[in-house]
Amino acid sequence: MISVWDISNFLRLDAIRLDWLSRTLIPYWISPEDPPERIPFTNPSCHVVEFDIRGLSWPSPHAFKLVSYTLQDLKIFRMRQRRIWCGLCHTCCEPRFLPPGPDKIAYTDGLGLPIHYAQALSQLKHLEEVYITVPDAGKGKTLLADNGNPHMWAGECDRCMEIMYEDNTFREKWVSRKRGIGTGESADGTVYIRPPSLRRVEWHFLKSAPVEAELSEAESGGEDSVLEAEIEGSTDESDASDIETEEGP
């Protein structure tokens, strides 16, 4: 299909940044039957190795499965968004930690993605690095600090952590599943599937007011306008203090 979004002629293109648009601005040629998370360009060069997507309002695993279909040679994937997927309640949530919360969590073993994100990206044979930037709305009960990340936090919402992690047996099995170890007793049999070349996953957290307190700003400047402004003014990924996590499967 020929359109202004056809990038097949950019033969030297190796990196793409997509600032996600509202549904009312999705190109006219995308069918109403297409999923709203569809990547709004066609025929990318096979040399695209880095993709930076910002402002996706509902970052479900399905959206990233579409990325894996479109950019099969991807090596570096960056996500900057207000919400993250919780693998326990299967919905998108705003991260909240008990203050002060971490600035950065780094996994150097190919683990650290939400389980369903890892599954969605598992077909990307060349993917080496994933960077996820989200706000920390604060006022949560999830404790993560610079001295450790014992339960391998990977997007779980504060409410699920509070309720489900009280059950020690459940918590141990869930953490095992995040390490790629099946327990044989999970409801859906889901375990972490590591993309074959993935070696680093980094989470970066911006201090932010809760979404509910910024609805008026979001309505006037776009859902993620406040987050985008904070991201543009933030430090590079390598500058933040962090938790380094090295867990074997």
Report on the architecture of this protein.
This protein has a seven-stranded mixed β-sheet with strand order 1-2-3-7-8-6-9. A two-stranded antiparallel ribbon has the order 4-5. The model is unreliable at 24-32 and 211-241 (pLDDT under 50). The protein has helices at 61-70, 115-121, 158-164, 168-178, 215-221, 225-232; strands spanning 15-19, 50-54, 76-80, 84-86, 91-93, 104-107, 129-136, 200-207, 243-245. The N and C termini lie far apart (43 Å). Helix 1 runs parallel beside helix 2. 20% of the residues lie in helices and 18% in strands. Strand 4 and strand 5 (91-93) form a beta hairpin. The protein is globular. The relative contact order is 0.18. With 249 residues, the chain is of the alpha/beta class. The longest helix has 11 residues, at 168-178.
Beta-strand content bin: 15-25%
Report how far the terminal alpha carbons are from each other: 43 Å
Basic shape:
globular
Instruction: Give me the secondary-structure category.
Output: alpha/beta
Give the overall pLDDT as a whole number.
77
Order of helices and strands: EEHEEEEHEHHEHHE
Beta strand count: 9
CA gyration radius, whole angstroms: 18 Å
Helix content: 10-25%
Helical element count? 6
Cross-sheet strand order for the largest sheet: 1-2-3-7-8-6-9
- Residue stretches low in confidence (pLDDT < 50, at least 5 long) are 24-32, 211-241
Largest sheet: 7 strands, mixed
